[in-house]
Amino acid sequence: MPHSNQAEEAMEEPEEEVNLPPSLQLDHDTFLSQLAAFHKERGTTFDPAPRVNNKTIDLQRLYRSVLVDGGYDQVSRTQKAWRKLAHEFHLDSKNGAAYAHQLKTAFYKNLA
Questions:
Q1: pTM of the prediction?
Q2: 3-state SS string over the chain?
């Protein structure tokens, strides 16, 4: 009979492998600094700490989540995918559609 830790490890699902771009292999501050420089170069407004339902959204986490789910276009095409992401960010579900839209807007303005 396998040791209990071995049995638990065998039951765990393997993590989905995603080839992360170099920008997601950076520490959080460097990621935000490079993103700010990108916006400055383009002459666009950058909000390093957008808020949805009075909660600050971690842009690096949002970027990673959207990439794991197939990218902005794929998430936007998939029914209720932005709502799922809003739920992952612990945004109130009773206003899920509104918060999903705000999360999508935060992504588009800052990360697209």
A1: 0.77
A2: CCCHHHHHHHHCCCCCCCCCCHHHHCCHHHHHHHHHHHHHHHCCCCCCCCEECCEECCHHHHHHHHHHCCCHHHHHHCCCHHHHHHHHCCCCHHHHHHHHHHHHHHHHHHHC
